Amino acid sequence: MDQSIDARPATPSRLTRARRLLATAPFTARLGMVLLAIYAFVAIFAPWIAPYGEVEVVSRIPFDGWSAEHLLGTDQLGRDFLSRLIFGARNSISIALVTTLISFGIGCLLGVFSALIGGFVDQAISRFVDALMSVPDLIFILMILSIFGNSIPNLILIIAVLTSTRFFRISRAAALNVASLDFVEAARVRGENLLWISVHEVFPNVLPLILSELGMRFCFIFLSIAALSFLGVGIQPPMAEWGSMVRDNAALINMGDITPLIPAASIALLAIAVNFVVDWLLNRVSGLNEEG
């Protein structure tokens, strides 16, 4: 009996495609991925990595120096600085990530819906977004927090709503280009509702561009939370947060101690790592080739 031979090439597995993708990534992108993996590991396993508890007072001496028992010394209340730094990673990154995802959902869904509906509704939403974007974010956040209180849910919701305006602008602009294509018109003719068209037809085609913005917005939100905590209106004690750790231990700088600069360096390093990865993703989306 003759046996037919399938000459079609085997489809590479997801793991193989991921390896090829990483192999073509530039050094900066791979460095960013490694740093992000380290940050994620520390944030997830903070309770098991930290030598002491987040609010545990371990020394009667405030601002105790570096030692074998306390590798980075203690803070102004005698708490282990290294443990606070590790728990600060969990608190800062998790709150910024949740805020970014909420902002992403609000802005993208509203932007796609606005592009598909068009007309007066689209113009009304766009003008409202323009009005929100015209107000300086930090001043607006400080004003709202002074009215409703600086709890973590309020902080997340306020920053998410303000940041969603950026996602709205990008998703709406991208969706307007996709909405005029034939497959979207075919879905309208079939009688599909706006939600189905948004989720199945428009959103998958604008997602790569929006994902690059997602990383940029995460950096912005992370830095905003750190700045608010530095000013005393962000994440409140006794929760550890890198911005507030810089403020609370700033007196050590006058003594020639660089310990307060470690949380600041951690903030900067995370932002750099995210930007390395985002730049690479943006180049891939735009079709640019990057050597190195």
Automatic annotation (TrEMBL):
Keywords, ordered alphabetically: Cell membrane, Membrane, Transmembrane, Transmembrane helix, Transport
Transmembrane segments: 27-50, 93-118, 138-162, 218-240, 260-282
Keyword Transmembrane: yes
CDD domains (UniProt xref): TM_PBP2
Topological category with respect to the lipid bilayer: Multi-pass membrane protein
Domain of life from the UniProt record: Bacteria
Alphabetized InterPro entries for the sequence: BP-dependent_transpt_permease, MetI-like, MetI-like_sf, OppC_N
Residues annotated as domain ABC transmembrane type-1: 89-282
Alphabetical GO biological process terms: transmembrane transport
GO cellular component: plasma membrane
Main location: membrane
Gene3D superfamilies noted in UniProt: MetI-like
Subcellular location: Cell membrane
Pfam families: BPD_transp_1 (PF00528), OppC_N (PF12911)
Family affiliation: Belongs to the binding-protein-dependent transport system permease family.
Name of the protein described by the UniProt record: Peptide/nickel transport system permease protein
Source species: Cereibacter azotoformans
